[in-house]
Amino acid sequence: MTHVTTQTPHRRFNPLTGDWVLVSPHRMNRPWNGQAESPEIFPTISHAPECYLCPGNMRASGEQNPNYNGPYVFDNDFPAVLDDASSAEAPDNPLFLSESARGRARVICYSHDHSKTLPLLTQKEVEAIVSTWAREARDLQDHYAHVQIFENRGLMMGCSNPHPHGQIWATEFIPTRVKREHDCQADWYRNHGSVLLMSLAQEESVRSVRTVVESEYWICLVPYWAEWPFETLLLPKLNVKRLQDLPDSAASDLASILRELTTIYDNLFACSFPYSMGWHGAPSGVDDSGWLLHAHFYPPLLRSSSVRKFMVGFEMLAEAQRDLTPEMAAERLRSARGVHYSMS
Ligand code: H2U
Ligand code: ZN
After folding, report:
1. Closest by CA position to 224, among listed 9, 11, 25, 7
2. Given Cys at both, which of 98, 174, 272, 298 links 40, Cβ 3.0 to 4.6 Å?
3. Which residues line ligand 1 (CB under 6 A)?
């Protein structure tokens, strides 16, 4: 039983984290009188005088951005991790453990143009973002165990500025969620002799019910175990462990699938679609045989540009839960494919 068509409550297992998710499809039509968010809107000007990321403008640190063109990366002026090697206090009680957390935080502006989110950039411009990600990942991974590349898009996700940008946090430690994915992929490799996410990409490509878009080198799908309503997982079809290891052809194909996916997201509710997305590549200093590079997209929206999913109550205290099945979500996303709604 694969629970693809069932309307009764069931749980699904996430082999990448070891978590379960409760799926309650029969609950889809319940009424909503709760909070409505303001829909995300696109900025319309190419250069904003008050924007701290626009070319030539002053940042909060007092430093001036150069007149850059294309992606621009700089060290975060308010970094969450620092490179100084001060060590943590020695534990005097196992109840209060801590350890040092050395690292480096950077900000990546996707474009000089304040108004151009990912789906509105050209193929060449997105290729430049992909190669910047790969270069940063390679350079930083020489010094740190894990390089977390991510983007918070939209006010709803806590993004501080509409200028298209992402962040890069490189850490000497392997963060909790990445370590869990590492352990699960390593266990799978030991137990099945295959790369978990490569097997998934192959199987999902054949089944196609959860596929959102697929290209020569990539497949984007709503995972069988997705927690967020329109969560997706972007997988290469090659056995590539890190962004910096992508062959040129797969990197340019990635730019094109990213444009397609982010256009689908914007089209779904005709808004600048908020999400947190990020890349997971194999950390350094571990046996990476079971690893596959991948990106997660976690969008908060549920029903419209103004109604979001809240991860509260049962989710906070017990287990993630969803109403819309991943198969229905994939179908909705597939039907939003095509030209960006703002241009049609
Ligand atoms: P978010 O909008 O995704 O939070 O990212 C903005 C980042 O930019 C944030 O981490 C940094 C913030 O610390 N920043 C600077 O480095 N310089 C500035 O002048 C303002 C914001
Ligand atoms: Zn700007």
Report:
1. 11
2. 272
3. 52, 59-61, 76-78, 107, 152, 159-161, 167
Helix axes 326-334, 248-268, angle to 10 degrees: 100
Q: H or E element: which one contains 331?
A: helix 326-334
Looking up tokens 């935080």 gives 105
Grade residue 32 by pLDDT with cuts at 50, 70 and 90: low
Residue 163 binned pLDDT confidence (cut-offs 50, 70, 90): very high
pLDDT at 317 over 60: yes
Instruction: Say which CATH number the domain at 272 has.
Output: 3.30.428.10
Token readout for 288 is 């990476």
Give the pLDDT band (50/70/90) at residue 269: very high
65 part of a folded domain: yes
User: Is residue 16 in a domain?
Assistant: no
Q: Which residues of 275-284 are buried (b: 16+ CB within 10 A; e: fewer)?
A: bbbbbbbbbb
Domain assignment of residue 306, yes or no? yes
How far apart, in whole angstroms, are the C-alpha atoms of residue 258 and residue 72? Answer: 19
> Average pLDDT of 49-54?
96
Look at residue 48 in the predicted model and tell me its pLDDT: 96
Phi, psi of 29, rounded to the nearest 5 degrees: -100, 20
Which pTM value belongs to this model?
Answer: 0.96
Which residues surround the ion ligand 2 when the cut-off is CB under 5 Å?
A: 48, 51, 53-54, 114, 163
Q: What is the mean pLDDT of residues 174-195?
A: 98
Structure tokens at 208: 């196609």
Rounded Cα distance, 96 and 332, in Å: 47
> Would you please indicate which residues are annotated as catalytic (active-site) residues?
165
Q: Please give the number of the atom of ligand 1 that sits closest to the Cα of 77.
A: 16
Q: How far is the CA of 142 from the centre of ligand 1 (A)?
A: 24
Kindly give, in sequence order, each residue whose CB lies less than 8 Å from that of residue 49, ignoring residues fewer than 6 positions away: 57
Q: Is residue 29 part of a domain?
A: no
Total of domains in the chain: 1
Q: Is the pLDDT of residue 247 over 70?
A: yes
Residue 180: give the domain boundaries.
43-88+97-337
